[in-house]
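Protocol step 4 of 5: obtain the predicted structure for the target chain.
Materials: sequence only (see below). No template structures provided, no constraints applied. The aim of this step is simply to have a reference model before the mutagenesis design in step 5. Sequence pasted as it appears in the construct record:
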Amino acid sequence: MSKLKELILRNAEEIRRIDARIHETVAYRDESKEKHMEWSNACAEFHARYDKLAFPGGYEGACERMLAGEEEAMEAAICFLECRPYFFRSGYMTSEILRKIKKAPLSDEQRQRLNAVLLKREAYRQKKVKAG
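Step 4 output (structure tokens):
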């Protein structure tokens, strides 16, 4: 596995961890000032770190960087789609990245990898339809 894919998966795990901290503390936030501060700090950490963790180089502006042909953003997008990380809003991000990456200037190798992702995605959807 490439270092970029490892980073994406590690970051997804960290997002899940800091998101879980919010859910752990929300039920107790009204018990005391300290509990409220604990929850507030968990929220602040999530919001401060999310963008950088969600996508290599930051998710803010990532689609624009892909469309502009930035090699690192395009490679990160392909790796993201191949890894299918799971965290808060990752499904939305996957859909947005898929829409944008299809319009980005990809190398032949990246186009082949994207096509493999799309084939796997379609096979999964077909399997889900048959099971449902």
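Step 4 remarks: The chain has a mean pLDDT of 95. Residues 3-131 form one domain.
Proceed to step 5.
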